[in-house]
Amino acid sequence: MFESYIGKRSTPTRNAVERGAVRKFAEAIGDPHPLYVDEDTGKSSFYGGNIAPPTFPRVFNYGSIEGFHLPNVGLIHGEQSFHYERPLKVGETIQCYTEIKDYYEREGTGGKLGFLVIDDVGEDSRGERIFTSQAIVIITEEVRKRLSK
């Protein structure tokens, strides 16, 4: 169903790691750690400034892949992981893109399930990778039927 999209990427999109957004995100997840929200703590830290919580990249825009669309309802969030080369620093601007890494199907009790593996990537201004977030989206038989119409 999505095999033809494997290896396709979106056009990179600029995203700012804004202090206010980091503060709101930290509060929303219930982790207002001083390293995320207190400027003095950030300045005196190993990083020399505030950093964003590890799951903060969920708020970024990763662009879109031409012709690739998923419905807004009926999908199952199967798994998500984050891998960092270094922390995201408050105040920096990064380039983000998404890439379809894999698609496979398995038979389930309710019919065939599709497993879509998507990487979201953030790079600094020199093109060096900061993080990769990988998500596995499970596409149920019902969603598969709607998509194939």
Describe the structure in your own words:
The protein has 149 residues and is α+β, with helices and mostly antiparallel strands. The protein is built from 4 helices and 5 strands; from the N terminus they run βαααββββα. It starts with 12 loop residues before the first strand and ends with a helix.
- How much β-strand is present in the residues? 35-45%
Mean pLDDT: 94
Number of strands: 5
Helical proportion, percent range: 10-25%
Poorly predicted regions: none
Rg (C-alpha, Å): 18 Å
Lateral strand order in the biggest sheet: 1-3-4-5-2
Structural class: alpha+beta
Draw up the topology in text:
Layout: E1 13-16, H1 19-28, H2 34-37, H3 39-43, E2 75-84, E3 93-108, E4 111-123, E5 129-139, H4 141-147
